[in-house]
Amino acid sequence: MKTVIALLASMLAFAATENSEPSLSYFTRVREITIASPDRQNYLVVDRDVWQHARPDLADLRLYDGLTQVPYELKSAEAGTSSQESEVKILNLARRGDHTEFDLDVTPITEYNRIHLTLDKKDFLVSASAEGRDALTGGVSAPWPSPSTLFDFSRENLGSNSTIIVPTWSFRYVHVRLSPGILPTEVKQATVARLQKKKPEWMAAGNCLPPSQEKRGTVIKCELPAGTPLDRIRFDLPPGRVNFRRSVSVADEKGGQVASGSIFRIRLTRGTTTVDSEELAVSVFADRSGPFTITIDNGDDPPLAFSAVELQSLQRRLYFDPQGKTSLKLYYGDEKLSAPVYDYAKFFREDAASVQALLGPDTQNAAYSGRPDDRPWSERHKAVLWVAMLLAVGLLTLLAVRGLRTDRTA
Questions:
Q1: 236-273 pLDDT, tens per residue?
Q2: I want to staple 297 with a disulfide (CB 3.0 to 4.6 A). Which of 94, 204, 247, 337 is the partner?
Q3: In CATH, what number is assigned to the domain containing residue 154?
């Protein structure tokens, strides 16, 4: 009896372990990779075919040289980001004639190329000149010949800017001179940062229909292929269309908002100072695919005549070292495969001289046979399990009957 119960318990508890290891026969798709520069770091650009057939998180991508995996690092080709802003000391803040001047002590910051001012002022347009100095008085100085334009167009609802752009400096002090319009009491704080300039790399992600007008808004219907990420929407306008700011919202097919922002182009001159600023893209942070709708709020203004509306994805790149190989293969399409863990990724540094390797056509993997059935044993052998349970119930019934007979005879 104990043996039967133990066997039944073992059958109920047993489950096949999931095989998360990669195998060429588990991948549904394969691509040839052509490498023109096998002596340096290369990268592949993830395209629509990969997005369509790979896992959404791209965890199942594998590079192979024959039967051997080639380590890689997956990165987004996004723009460079500034270092954390650090507050600096404002010295000698005073009015000189009709304008405001002051010095900044940037210690202990070693390098910077952006100076951000916090100004207690609305509706202004001024210029700001900067001069790097080794000492507050005397010593080496370096006037920067390109003043920055600072503005606040709250009244026109056209935004603001209070950042001074300079070269990458290491001067301990910066002398700032503002054109008339800002009082010393209105300069509240200054921070510096170093902006690492690296342009993002974009790729087309979907398609949009021509805009239509509905009441006070412009409506644009778009479609995103399955699996393809959407990172931003770019609006193109003729260069002569200036001085506007419009709110933009993006909704899915059920009306739920998935993104919002604003687009603008400002070219204004007040006195001898001109501001030239624009932003014609809206970032999208929600993962989605299928149809969606873009709505531009025009208010009482005439609609904008867009020359193009582009859906864009940031390039996702696989960086790898070919180690002299001129051809490899990329496999993907295994939904149960977990992300790889490579030493190459732990110590990865992007090489400025890296080159793009080319992906061949997306093809079905001829070696594909699929993963073995990894369902629990009880799911795969239900008939055997039921037989075992019935036998156990029958045996228990028999023993119970025998027990009753023994009690009666006693």
A1: 999 999 999 999 999 988 888 989 999 999 998 888 78
A2: 247
A3: 2.60.120
pLDDT tens, position by position, 154-167: 888 888 999 999 99
108 and 189 co-located in one domain: yes
**Contact (CB, 8 A) for 132 and 144:** yes
Tell me, yes or no, whether 266 and 296 share the same domain.
Answer: yes
Q: Round to whole Å and give the CA distance between 355 and 341.
A: 23
Mean pLDDT of the chain: 88
| pLDDT at residue number 82 | 56
Tokens 């793009």 belong to residue: 356
The residue range of the domain holding 250 is: 202-314
What is the structure's pLDDT at 15?
Answer: 38
Query: What's the pTM value of the predicted model, to 2 decimals?
Result: 0.63
Rounded to the nearest 10 degrees, how much is the dihedral formed by the CA atoms of 45, 47, 50, 52?
A: 160
Same domain, 272 and 321: no
304: nearest Cα among 296, 312, 315: 296
The residue type of 307 is S
Compute CA distances 104 → 5, 83, 132, 189, whole Å.
82, 19, 10, 10
- Tokens found for residue 168: 């990458």
**Domain check: are 51 and 63 in the same one?**
yes
DSSP 187: E
Omega before 108 within 30 of 0, i.e. cis: yes
Q: Residue 24 is which amino acid? A: L
pLDDT tens figures, 20-68: 678 999 999 999 999 999 999 999 999 999 999 999 999 999 999 999 9
